[in-house]
Amino acid sequence: MVPSNHTEQHTLIALVEDKPGVLTRVASMFRRRGFNIASLAVGNSEQPGLSRMTFVVNGDDYTVSQVAKQLDKLIDVIEVSDITSESTVTRELALIKVKTNQMTRGEIIQIVNLFRANIIDVGSESMVIEITGEEDKINALHNLLSSFGVIEMLRTGVVAMVRGQTNGLANGHSEQAGQVNSGSHS
Amino acid sequence: MELTGAEIVCESLLKEGADVVFGLPGGAVLPLYGALSVYPAIRHILVRHEQAAAMAADGYARATGKVGVCIATSGPGATNMVTGIAAAQMDSVAMVAITGQVPRPAIGSDAFQETDVTGVTLPITKHNMLVMDVKDVAQAIHDAFHIARTGRPGPVLVDIPRDVLLGEKTEFVWPSTTKLPGYKIPWEAPEAQVASAAELINQAERPIIMSGHGVLISHAYGLMTELAEKAQIPVITTLLGISAIPSSHELNLGMSGMHGMAYANLAIDEADLIIGLGMRFDDRVTGRISAFAPNAKFIHVDIDASEVDKNIQATVGMVGDMKAVLGQLLPKVEANQHIDWLNHINELKAQHPSHLVRESDELLPQYVLQRLTEVTQGRGIVVTGVGMHQMWAAQHCRFTEPNTWITSGGLGTMGFEVPAALGAQVGRPDVTVWSVAGDGGFQMTMCDIATAVEAHADIKFAILNNNSLGLVHQLQELFFDKEYIASQYTANPDFVKIAEAYGIRGIRVTRKDQVVDAVRQAMETAGPVIVDFMVKEDEGLFPFIPSGQSVKEMLEEPTLEEIT
Prior knowledge:
In chain A, about 25% of the residues lie in helices and about 35% in strands.
């Protein structure tokens, strides 16, 4: 193919059956096709028996379109959409454990307040901060805190949702869904 | 009436029309065999090695258009089928593999003959499932057949623990529908795309159809040929697409690609439109992708959306069933003549006659196949293994009917020729199957000649015996400074005696004048026959576009001088 050098971050959402092994199928597909997942978050959807996965994938348009098609090809995957160009809300949650002492504690609390983050555990030499927000906001807090010494960080990965009335099931999910990702450039 | 899981499997197989299964029993799957013994409507063919069960199911599926079914026990039984399953996945073959699993309480405990078979086969199946409740067995088998045979076909593995097969009984209720909310089967393409494709075809001056396996799977060969004839477009068949159009058809250019006809590759190089139908522009077809059909626009039709724009950026890419899409396209395509283009291709063919065999006193493998196909008049089924013999058969065997050419393409599975021929013949007992074999691959699976004998299968094994792994030998000659290692056999068995050991006829051919007579004798003998053709050992395979190169680097033989 002719992969362009234009790599950017794409957000894909997949509605999948909540069955054993679905995550393995998805992860195995990414690995064997050589795609990289920047982040992946999975959880229940509004429909019983169905989960939603949010993928952040780095790649050019060709790669990301292949990711979407290969995901859609998995039998347990009901619908895939690339919502990168849509109006979305995205959130990620992070827990950051940072070194503290009497000298730095006050300054860290100020920073945490500025970011509207929460301190959820305080020890004599460390504290745990919880922050929810867009990826950039979490990156910014992490950068500021790193000068104090970040002992541990845990991020959930981004979850994303399209604004408005859609629920990502625009095409319905009947078996004879007709044209699937026709991939045409006509 | 309440039935065991094993009985439900048998009932479900019958509902799906599976009246032949290939398998080999063992502990975990034994309850299923217990049930098979009271379901005589399902014919079980006992193989000698589980890989043969999978490959025979593959050959059966390709020859009949039905779903091939294979059965093995847990652990080694299942892992022995892996190569056959992977081959079916690569070549889009409808297959259902049923494996026994250790009892539910033992799963995950490294029990005797326990392997995580759904884990092992995850990347090489279209789908797989582990059935953990007897109430789910019927739905699982129903879904498995549906997935295997629809859309882009492929293998589906159903793993069933022993205590699900033989434990709690349940009412057998055949499910009225599949339970597959995420499974979509494309059918027609959007009209706007069809119109754009028709316009490209109507404007093209040098179009070529590349017809792949999808045309055969979808039974769209009639429509494909109609399209070719209406607009007078020459047809190239991919390795798996062979037999979609009769070899004698004036528009059929044969196979292109790495070992394809020189004139077919040269025509692609000059084409202004490539119409790829049910094929995937794989590297053996295209060579270096940037140099492939440099002057052409591309129409690509495939039922698998992920194939469109994967290797080639299509000018018009359509996702749909081949029969449906060609049905939409045909009325919009104008009748055409393309006289200059067809004349030019005929000149290319005259200048680059790769379909001909050079004169030689030695027993050339190409000569053997030419005579063989003359005697059979292109009737019956040809099954091959993988290597030189396969490519020569693709170049020189002739076909009159669709789905009469069965070969392992994508995976390139040596040894395929023996069990796949068995499956094909069991599926089509009305025809003779010629298993064109290499001496290398034949020895990988020849234990299943015994199965062919037991099944009274009318298979004629034609071994093109060069006492070597010929293609490896040629690659070492050309690209590894003639450092021949591990590519020559010094003590091959006597294949005529092998035949005798199995109680069948063996014929050795060492001279040209024996070929036709041997083929006739094989045809006149009922049941399996082995013909050992001792061909010229160092005969090279040409034409040859080395891996990653283009038609400009094609090594061409025979040349015009050698023929005339």
